[in-house]
Structures are given as C-alpha cells and as structure tokens.
Amino acid sequence: MDIGTVMNVMRDPAGIPAHPELFRILMIVTWVFHIAFVTLTLGAASLAIYAFWRRDTGPYWTRLSIAMTKVAKVGVSLLIVLGVAPLLFTQVIYDPQWYASNVLSAGWAIGFIFTLIIAYCLWFAFYFSNKEGAKRHIGIFAVIALLLFLLDGLIMHALSYQALLPGQWMDWYAPDGVVDTRGAYLHAIQWPRYFFIISLSVPAIGLYLLAYDDYLKSRPDLPEGYLGFVRPLGRKLGASGSLFALILFVWWQFDNPSDSNLIVQPGGWAVGAALLVLWFEVTFFADKLHGYLLLCGGLVVLLLLAIWREVVRATYLSAYGYSIVDQKINADWPSLALFFLTLAGVGGLVGGFYLSLLYRAGRVQGVYQADRSIAAMGTGAVAVLAVWIAVFFLYGIAIFIENTFAY
Amino acid sequence: MLGMYPTFYVPYIGSAWVMGIIGVIHVVASHTSVGAAFLFAVLETKAYRDDQPEIMGFIKRYGVFLLVFSYIIGSITGPGIWYAITVASPRGVSGLIHNFVWVWAAEWVYFTVEVIGVYALVYLIGKVDRLTHLKLTWSFALASWATMLLIVGILSFMMWPGNEGWYLTGSTNDAFYNINFFAHLGVRTGSMFVMAAVVGFMVAAGIKDEDLKRGVIRVIAPIGLLGGLFSVMMFLYYLQTLPTNAKVMLQAYLIPAYANTMIGIFVATTAYLVFVWWKPHRLKLYIAVPMFLAIAVLGVWPEERMRESMRKPYVAGQYIYSNQVIARDVPGKSIRGEVDLIAEKGLLKLHPFIPDRLREVTDDNRLEVGELLAKIACANCHALEPGAPLRSIPDKLYGSPDKDMIAAFLRGPLKHGAAPYMPRIDLPDQEVDAIAAYLASVNAGTLEKSAASHTSAPITALIEREGK
Ligand code: HEM
C-alpha cells in the first residue's frame, strides 16, 4: 500500500474544528516556549552541577549553584506544561504521523513518563540538599537527573523525527514481514538535529545569567561582587554557546537528505544567521544592552528554529503527498471562542497577576506591599474566574436542558 | 482501506492496565491538588479574619508537599495518560482531540496559570501583604477547579453523549455538556475534598503545636466528610445517567467484583475522618500515611477500572470501539461506521499495517495471522495469555482447545454484537478461522511459552510446520 495514501486515510474522520493554518501557527508559537524552557532548564541544571563541584574554588559558586538548582526546578515544571500545548496542536494536524511514531516506539513513550518522574524527583532531592556545606556525593542525584532529562529529550526527538519518515514505518513495525507489537525501539535518531537543539542550552543559560544580573541589580542584600561574577560568566557562555550551536546547526543542514533541497532554502540559514547575530551582540554589546533585550534575541533564534522545523516537516511529508492544508474542516466556533476568551481573560489577567506579583516581590527585600495596580489585578483575577465559572454553568445548563427536551 | 494504526500490545496486563496505573496516580495527585487549593483558601481566610498567622505555616508545609507530590507527579502523569491512551488507542485519543481541541487548549491555559500559581502561592507566603496573598490563593483555587470542570466534560463524553444531539450536530457543546457531565463533576468535586483532607492529615500529623494542629484538623475534617457525602450522592445520580451497556457491565461483572471493596473503603474513610475530627491529637504519621495509601489505591483503582470497563465496548462517545473501529455513523461530522465494511472485506484487506505475506491466509501462516488479528481485534480489552489478569481470552474460553467451538463463538455472539460489552466483530470466514485456530492452539498449550513474546510469530510458524 502506498504510505502517502495511507496517511491521508489515517487522518481523523471527524475533521478539524478550524482552519489548519491556525493550528499550525499555535503549534509553532507554543513550541517556542516549550523549547525555551527546555534549553534554559538543561543549561541551568548543567551549570548547577558544574558550580556545585567548583564550590571550593571561589566564593560565589555555592550561591550560583543553589540559584541554578532553583531555576532548573521551576524550569522543568514549566517546560512540561508548555509542552502540552504543542502536543495538542500537533495531534490535530499531524495525527497520522504523531500516533504512528508513538505507537511504533510505545515502550519509550511510556518510559518517557516514568523516567521524567524519577528525574524530577531526583532533582528535588538535590534541591532540598544543595545547601551551604552540602556533601559532595549529593551531586550524583543531579547528574542522574540531568542524564535522564537528556534521555527524555532524545525520546522527544525520536518521536518527532520518526514522524517524518513514513516510508520506513512498515519496516519498523514488521521487519522482514514479521510483526513486532512491543514498541520496544527508538527507530530513528538524527543526531545532528538532537545535538544542535540541546546545544542551545549553553547560550540559553548565558543569556539568562545576563538578564538575571539586570533583574537583581535592585537587591542590596546580595553580597558585593556576586553580580560582577555572574555577568562575565553569562557573557562567556552566551558567546561561546552561540558559536558552538552554530557549528552543530551547519552539521544538521548538511545531514538532511540532499534531494529534499532543504539546504538551499533561506529559512534554515536564517536560523544560522540569527545565531551569528546573537554571538555578535553578546560579544560586543553584552555590557551595553539590557539583559532582557539579549534574552529576546535568544527567543528570536528559537522562533526561527520553530518555523524551520515546520518547514523541514512539511518538506519531508510533501514527498509523500501529505499536506495539512487539504484537511476536512468541521468548524466549531463556540469552543474556539472558549479558548481565545480563556487565553485572554484568564491567561492575561490571572497569569499576569501571578507573574507581576512574583516579579515585583522578588525585587524587594522583605515584604512586598501591593500597589494600586497589583491590588486591582488581584481583585480582577478573582472576579474574572468567578464570572468564567458562572458563565460555564449557565451556558452548560441551558444546553443540557435544551438537549434533554429536544432528543 | 481504513485509517487504522499499528498495534501496541503489552502481554498479560494489556495496555489498559498500564493506563489504569498511570491514571490512578494522576487522579490521586490531581484531585488532591484541586481539593487542597480550596482547603488553603478556607484556611487562609480564617487566618486573615481571625488574625492567626500561624495557620500560614501549615499552608506552607502542605504547599511544599503538594508541589512535590501533586505537581511533579500530577503534571507529568497528566500528559502520561495522554501518551498511554495514544499508544493503546490512537484512534480513540484522536477522536477526542479532534472534537475537543479547543476545550483542551482552554484547560491548558488554566493548567499553565496553575503551575505558576502554585509556586507563587507557596513562595510568596510572608513575602507579600496578606490581602494580596489571599486573593492569590482564592484565584488559585478557582483556577484549579476550572481545570476539573473542563476535563470532566471530555471524560464524561468518553462514556457517551446520552442522546442523539451530538451525532447529528457534531457540535462540541452537545458533546461536552452530555448527560452524565454534571453527575460526574459532582462525584469528582466531592471526592477531591476527601483526597485533600486525607493528604492534609499526613501534613497535619507532623505539626508540633497542638493548638494549631487541632485548629487545622477541625477545619479540614468536616470539609472532607461533607465532600465524601456529596460525592456518594452524586455517584448514585451518576449511575442513573449511564448507557445500557454500562449497566449490564455493572450488574454482571463490576458490582460482584468491586462492591465490597468500595463499601469497605467508604466506611473506613468516614470512620477515619470522624475519628480524627473527634480526637485530633491522636493523629500520627504512622496512621495517616497507611490510611492515605489505602484510600488512594483501594478507593481509586476500582473507580478507574470501573469507568474504563463500563465504557466497553467503546473508547469514546459510543462511536469508536476500543479495538479502533468506528462503530457507527456520525452524520454531524460525516463520519462513517466501519463494521459492515470490515465484515465484507476483512481486516486483512483493509488494515494498512499488515505485512504483505500475511494478507492471505495459508496453511503456513494461519496461526501467525490469527495471532495478529487477535491482537488487532481483541487485545485492546483482553490479554491473550492464559491466567493473565486482564480478561484473558483463553480463560474466558475455559481453556478449550476446540477450534470449532471458538469459531462458533466468533460467528455467533461476536458477529451479531450480542454481548453488549463487546464490539460487533464481524469478520470473513478465513479470518474467523485464523483467530479460532490461534486461540485453540494457545489453549492446547502448543503456543503457550511463546504467545506473548515478539519471537512468537516465527515460532508460531515453526510449530505449525512441525505439527504437520
Ligand atoms: C525533560 C523533558 C523534556 C525535554 C528535554 C524535551 C525536549 C524536547 C526536544 C529537544 C524537542 C525537539 C525534538 C526535535 O525537534 O527533534 C521537543 C519537542 C517537543 N516536546 Fe519536549 N521535552 C521534554 C518534555 C516534554 C513534555 C513533558 C511534553 C508534553 C507534555 C513535551 C512536548 C513536546 C512536543 C509536543 C514537541 C514537538 C513535537 C513535534 O513537533 O513533533 N516535551 N522536546
């Protein structure tokens, strides 16, 4: 059977509830945030471990290690929730590929969950014991956790990559015509792509340190010299990390199949160019530009990467005659409105309230007294939720009653 | 051709139990976190109004515990269930995603807000003024509950929409606010307070200050009791909203299997809550931890297994069978049922993931084809090994090696869809024959050693050749 035809049949018969490009955009944008926290977390975790074992060599390593341990701790939570959204949107437009890839490596897809739980618990164990004067051996927890995080990233990568290779699915499922229902292998890994994405952790943590320095400038209780230690470190990691990632990126570019012509597409080189610009900024302007601005430069790289990944995917799949634009659409406006209103109202107001509060409180010593705007946001957050829940029930009861009588 | 996927098969427990295990962990973690959010809000209101800042110490302790227990485990097992259902039932999860993507996306907004919120709640205690923190806690509680409101609509649609509405309109409204939505929501909302109280007791057990301990317990225990009572009442209502296939399943299999455990857990939990309420100082960690484990495992496992079993033969909305076949037409979405087409052409012709050498049944490959077909058509609900815990087919056939009898079963009840908890599985003769031959040889013991392992296919072929 022709796998291109098969893929088109495997699409969900229910069709999709809005235009495919809308899902594509949401998938790309939400993935940027996922990968931002993936790279930040892996970078922070590595630095936490490195700093932990260098504690004896200088006064600030302990403090840095503890701070980075916390960053990684929060980072994992966020990378997980932020992974959920692209996971959702991928399944809407790339259901045949995503499900086939997952089923073919089902054991790993399940293993991903358990290893992630173990890794995160180990990281917490490290976090709880990484104090002034902590024993050296607790670093082992952190190392194992980091290795498991990297393994989970590899599983994510394989699931993404296998989805691009439908021509090989049947060979993986039934090598020599003998069916294997165990889902016991990762069937395809493109190392340059994996290493490149992971290598972005180095510039990510570098840029984070630069922003961290600017954020903490208002805190007089920090020991003198700490920030003076952090900033150059951030610059060094940011600059060398961008170059390092650039080299791996070029490797990935040349690793794609030559008949795909991906190498001559401008989108890929835009990612490379953005890395070069980043290197330039960090090398020459790290002390002149605000850390937040540099961080935005990093996000640009990730956005371009997200778009490029999508170009790569569409290119691989178009060879089989698969394209998301010819999906059957069964538009569903009420639930679309539900999402966008919730995103704006709850995401904006409640999420905004939490983030502003965390941001402000972190910059003062002692107790933060909410000013008028924050206080109003807090009241607004409770109110918007109360209204949301009330509407949810009234609307639901109306539909429930209507359907009870209608059918 | 049909849009079916490759099959993933876990010997003995089936992928259904893998999902059950992850599901139980997730339900305990997530219900605890939603319930606890409300306990925090109530306790913090008390602390604020009566000027009892020491209560905040308890909230902080519980909050840190919750972060590790509920948020690490809960937030990973959430996608975990998704992964598990993906590999066990790709078309089932796909059907849900394509009906509810925006609802899930809205839930995701809440979920993201919640994760930020739990860190803010725990780490800003004592770092921001008390009124602002109180707003933070109340908004956190409401947001947590909203995630439950959204997911329950999807879960209850999995059972069934309850009337013809959704099939005709295809509208998410009709799918979401289905007949057992409110009942199901009530059960979960009530039980989340029980879970939160029982977890709260573990945290409270460690409090040194006896007054604080008593004060906190006297708030938590009655909330847990009321929640439990409400949950039980809603459960009785929930039973009224079930489809016939679920009622049959309940009467025939589930009530005999689980009734005693469930009543036992209900009595034990009530007694525990009342006792701790009455004598807070007697609460110790060595009581609280085992009680938590017992209630979590013995209370939630039957509930999750029952929900999964009652849904049989469907995975979602009574239109997708557990074995990945579309069961009926859904005109509202222009979906076509596949059962009749399969009856006519057979799985071997229609399923895209069948190796070419197995598309025709021959004397050489009959057992191998039979095994593959059994995995495709039956193994989502049944294990294929004798003695296996997940509705082992060999055991259901009383170990009979009588191929004709097995074939008669396939050509009788299964073909006509006579068992309400099983799909109508109507297959062409040669496919029935292959499945029957395979199951008969499992029962005859000729396959036993290898039936589950990946090498079984060649060995099956081998045994067959040797047998001749
Ligand atoms: C430590 C944990 C994790 C790491 C290190 C990680 C890393 C990665 C990496 C490196 C990629 C890109 C793969 C590639 O393009 O080759 C990726 C993609 C992705 N990740 Fe994660 N991830 C983690 C956890 C998660 C979780 C928990 C979820 C879901 C809840 C998730 C959802 C996704 C999705 C949906 C994609 C895109 C897949 C696609 O477009 O095909 N990730 N992740």
UniProtKB/TrEMBL annotation, chain A:
Does the keyword section mention Disulfide bond?
no
Q: Which domain of life is it from?
A: Bacteria
Transmembrane stretches, start-end: 31-53, 74-94, 106-128, 140-164, 194-212, 233-254, 266-285, 292-308, 336-359, 380-401
Q: Which UniProt keywords apply?
A: Membrane, Transmembrane, Transmembrane helix
Indicate what this protein is called per its UniProt record: Uncharacterized protein
Q: Please give the organism.
A: Methyloceanibacter methanicus
Provide the organism lineage as a comma list. Answer: Bacteria, Pseudomonadati, Pseudomonadota, Alphaproteobacteria, Hyphomicrobiales
From TrEMBL, chain B:
According to its UniProt entry, this protein's organism is Methyloceanibacter methanicus
Q: Which GO terms describe its molecular function?
A: electron transfer activity; heme binding; metal ion binding
Its protein name is Cytochrome C
User: TM spans, by residue?
Assistant: 12-43, 64-85, 105-126, 138-161, 181-207, 219-238, 258-278, 285-302
Is the keyword Heme assigned to this protein?
yes
Q: Tell me which InterPro entries the record gives.
A: Cyt_c-like_dom, Cyt_c-like_dom_sf
Q: Which residues form the Cytochrome c domain?
A: 365-443
Which keywords belong to this entry?
A: Heme, Iron, Membrane, Metal-binding, Transmembrane, Transmembrane helix
What is the organism lineage in this UniProt record?
Bacteria, Pseudomonadati, Pseudomonadota, Alphaproteobacteria, Hyphomicrobiales
